[in-house]
Write a structure and sequence with these properties.
heterodimer, A: mainly alpha, Rna Polymerase Sigma Factor, Chain: A, Arc Repressor Mutant, subunit A, 2 domains, 69% helix, 0% strand, elongated, B: 178 residues, mainly alpha, 7 helices, rod-shaped
Chain lengths: 193, 178
């Protein structure tokens, strides 16, 4: 066990023993990453804070179930993803069944992916990406965020979302096709070269 | 491997999700098939849009960790609880249970007090006096006077009442209360 995992494990045990300062330290260690994660799904600062706070409160309530088989971040990442998607779903965003239903969305035609020009500054590039992601259904956004930004393996994505690897593959395929399509719609200039 | 199989495997290949057993034939196909190679290149190019994490313009509020820790130890319930129905049902059941227990306890106390009162010796009423030392008859007379507008000594205290209380009824009421 590396030092980070060892420290997390110690803090978890201390928290379970009633040490509020230990839990505060756990929150401090991961709050930045969870704020960044929630930021992928919404731009509303209040919503982001609520989502992250709820994530930690849920984590605290189930802390006894954390068994060190995965890292604390992997464990809380899953809680965070589900909390974020749950909040968005309750608000009526991204009806999962509709976007998953081929009869609703039709077949996705392969689209040549526009490539960002070398001159595009990193900040500008990330802003374009963010705007395109904002237009995608949350369920597609989720797999893209997990895969492209967080580098999760298919199995980890499947575990986080409670779906099969096959569904992860097809959902990623559709998400990427949607991303390309939306990119060309919003920024047609990137499709001209 | 044909092109159809190749296209379906390219995303997983680029994501590093294929076993060597699956990746070997695909690599061979890509070397031989220019359209599939182009498709793979296009797929790979998409990844460049995700090379830079969006710069977050949302900062963690000062004191966030301390507040969350305090809330957690105070037993705060997440607003977006994943078990809203169970939590709600549990809370409702708990409330109903509390009300039932309180009702049962109140009934038991009432029963006990009634039993104790029933055990007390009953007097003939001669020792029952109001604080003004007024007898029951004096009290009834006073009520009669107040209820009758024409009665002597009436200051009109009850004369504005739409339904004056008959003296008999009033006395019955008092008797019942005793």
């Amino acid at each position: 066990m590396d030092s980070a995992r060892s420290l997390d494990s110690t803090l978890v045990q201390q928290t379970l023993s009633g040490d509020a300062a230990a839990f505060e330290e756990l929150v401090e260690r991961y709050q930045g990453r969870l704020f960044a994660l929630a930021r992928h799904y919404t731009r509303n600062a209040v919503d982001i804070e609520d989502m992250v706070q709820d994530t930690f409160l849920k984590a605290y309530r189930r802390l006894e179930s954390f068994d060190n088989r995965s890292s604390f971040y992997t464990w809380i990442y899953r809680i965070a993803t589900n909390t974020i998607l749950d909040v968005l779903k309750r608000r009526g965003r991204s009806p999962i069944r509709a976007v998953e239903d081929p009869e609703v969305i039709g077949e996705v035609a392969p689209v040549d992916a526009p490539t960002p020009t070398a001159a595009l500054e990193a900040a500008e590039l990330s802003e374009v990406t963010r705007k395109v992601l904002d237009e995608l259904p949350d369920i597609f956004k989720a797999v893209l965020v997990m895969r492209e930004f967080d580098g999760l393996a298919y199995q980890e994505i499947a575990d986080n979302l409670g779906i099969s690897i096959g569904t992860v593959e097809s959902r990623l395929f559709r998400a990427r096709a949607r991303f390309k399509d939306k990119l060309l719609t919003l920024f047609p200039e990137y499709g001209e070269h | 491997m044909n092109c159809q199989d190749s296209r379906s495997l390219i995303p997983s290949y680029l994501d590093g999700e294929l076993s060597e057993h699956q990746a070997g034939p695909l690599r061979q196909h890509l070397m031989d098939c220019q359209p599939c190679r182009k498709a793979a290149a296009g797929q790979k190019a998409l990844g460049r849009w995700f090379e830079h994490e969006p710069v977050s313009d949302v900062e963690v509020p000062a004191g966030f960790a301390q507040r969350v820790s305090r809330l957690a130890f105070a037993g705060a319930v997440p607003r977006s609880s994943e078990e809203p129905l169970e939590v709600a049902a549990s809370a409702e059941a708990s409330f109903q249970s509390t009300v039932l227990w309180m009702t049962a306890a109140a009934a038991a106390v009432l029963l006990a007090v009634s039993g104790m009162l029933a055990q007390l010796p009953r007097g003939d009423g001669s020792n029952l006096r109001a604080g003004t030392e007024q007898t029951l008859e004096e009290t009834l007379d006073e009520i009669d006077r107040l209820a009758d507008p024409a009665g002597a000594g009436s200051e009109g205290g009850l004369q504005d009442m739409s339904v004056p209380v008959p003296a008999e009824d009033a006395s019955e009421g008092i008797d019942e209360k005793r």
